[in-house]
Amino acid sequence: MDRRRFISAVVAGIAGPFAGVACAGAKGAAEPVRGYGPLRPVPDLRDGKVRLHLPDGFAYRSFSVAGDAYDDGSTVPGRHDGMAAFSGPKGSAVLIRNHEVAGPVGAFGDRTRAYDPMAGGGTSTIQVTRYGEVISSAPSLNGTMMNCSGGPMAWRAWVSCEETVNGPDVGDDHTGADNSTLTRKHGYIFEVPVGRAATARPIRAAGRFPHESAAFDPSTGAVYLTEDNFSFPSGFYRYLPPRHPVLAGRLLDGGRLQMLAVDGVARKNLSVGQEPGSTYPVTWVDIDDPDPGFTGLPSYDDAAQAVGRQGRVKGGAIFARLEGAVHHNGTVYFVSTQGGAAAPGEPAPDGFGDGRGQVWAYELWSRRLKLVYESPRSSVLDLPDNVTASRRGTLVLCEDGDGDNFLRGLTRTGEIFDFARLQPIAGDEGAEFAGTTFGPAGHTLYVNLQAEQGMSIAIWGPWERGPF
């Protein structure tokens, strides 16, 4: 199918009645359901160690562990995070995976190709079977920093997002690492094509702020972007490129960046508890200077708010830590990790926002924002992070809480259930799920374990038995 016919087909496919999990948003919260049944400890087929608790009938294999070697002999970095799966030869999957490495620790892989040879983040590209057996692996983007999440693009590319604004023009961040040793500004999005290394050219017009995720709207060519500004208000953005990316074959720089605002209510605070089923008409305000450069070495905190403040001055809405985002059937779902009302009897999490998480839906066809789900307490949903959608429209949510971490499902009827539990790792309380994505034909759910020794995991089993 040529590119113009592809766009026409996509537009026709989303023009009908709304489909997806937001149609369950009338209650805004739901009681837990069984999903696929109770979880049990299951050994990893790679080495026999129990890493996950899964329902009966499901199995998994871990692969591409931090410290392993790529095909070129260089070392796989840690901090595995956002990821997407693309179809590969003979039923395989091509995974493009982020590495959320902070600080001026030096680039992995070939430093002559690095955006900034002092920065240690980037992406890996790994071809695997549907049972998690590695066929090939290579660095595909290096010299970037804090590559948290991103999103798959319709022209077979991954957009990788830097969750930072570090650079030689900005004061040191909370880690205390010396920003003066960096050679380039950070805080951008980068395109990583399937099948070849990235050019390492940032899309500067898409903003310099703590990016998290990207979701592509094939009907218009817009890329929707989330911001995770940990200690401060965050915004929901869209980048309007100068040409439709499917026609251009790539994401072009030089477009326009905008922030979502609630129509008629300036700076609407959506980070707090919402009425069940809350729905808002929205408008979009332009960001006049999406790529700020700084003089006088401002503090990191000031620099991190430079883009968001521009939007809020014009009325942009306030969210708490926007993380995962995914496009499904004409709707962009995105997660506010600390949004919502404080859970009774529970301490507020660190950072901006007192809640245990919200899931929002922006309907592209109606231009309305809907509350899909708001966590009532941490035992039901605790700080959701990355998100993907199954072919049936059920969302898969990665948790980032302080206690047990789960993969949870949120169905189209508003029911939430446990699908996987991470076996606690001694001495690594910060271990969490990240980067969930279904492989070709939906046979395998790939997910990352962000831990002291990060790894990717392939999960398969009787999906037809439950909501995925």
Number of continuous helical runs? 4
Low-confidence stretches: 3-20, 24-30
Strand order of the largest sheet: 11-12-13-14-15-19-18-17-16
**Broad shape:** globular
Q: The biggest beta sheet, please? A: 9 strands, antiparallel
Strand fraction equals 35-45%
Oligomer: single chain
- Mean pLDDT score, rounded? 93
Going by helix content, strand content and strand pairing, the class is: mainly beta
Q: List how many beta strands DSSP finds.
A: 26
Question: What can be said about this structure in brief?
Answer:
The chain is mainly β and 468 residues long. The chain is built from four helices and 26 strands. The protein has helices at residues 3-14, 245-248, 300-304, 306-313, and strands at residues 40-43, 50-54, 59-63, 80-87, 93-99, 121-128, 134-144, 147-153, 157-162, 189-193, 211-216, 223-227, 236-240, 256-262, 279-286, 322-328, 331-336, 358-363, 368-374, 384-389, 395-399, 406-410, 416-422, 432-438, 444-450, 455-460.
Description of the structure:
With 468 residues, the protein is mainly beta. It has helices spanning 3-14, 245-248, 300-304, 306-313, and strands spanning 40-43, 50-54, 59-63, 80-87, 93-99, 121-128, 134-144, 147-153, 157-162, 189-193, 211-216, 223-227, 236-240, 256-262, 279-286, 322-328, 331-336, 358-363, 368-374, 384-389, 395-399, 406-410, 416-422, 432-438, 444-450, 455-460. It contains 4 helices and 26 strands. β25 and β26 (455-460) form a beta hairpin. The model is unreliable at 3-20 and 24-30 (pLDDT under 50).
